[in-house]
Design brief:
Layout lengths: L1 E2 L8 E5 L6 E4 L14 E3 L2 E4 L4 E7 L9 E6 L1
Parallel strand pairs: 1-3
Antiparallel strand pairs: 2-6, 3-5, 4-5, 6-7
Length: 76
């Protein structure tokens, strides 16, 4: 399990699982604003990557509604 860094507006994270095992990414305070409909999100604020899968996230630290601080998936 890997905890994502604190979100800093504009930061882009490119994450690729190069391990032979599945990895789990956890987000605090949120990934995709807590939404669970993305196929790589296995539960609220948790991304699971099987070997050689990747995901790209953009950090958001804006709290102007409807946005909340966290990371948004922008490419998979």
């Amino acid at each position: 399990t890997i905890a994502l860094p604190a979100p800093a507006s504009g930061n882009i994270l490119h994450i690729k699982n190069i391990a032979a095992a599945t990895i789990t990414l956890t987000g605090t305070p949120a990934i995709n604003m807590g939404d669970t409909t993305h196929p790589k999100i296995t539960s609220a604020n948790v991304i699971t990557l099987t070997p050689f899968q990747h995901v790209t996230l953009q950090a958001v630290n804006d709290v102007l509604a409807p946005l909340i601080t966290g990371h948004m998936i922008i490419s998979d």
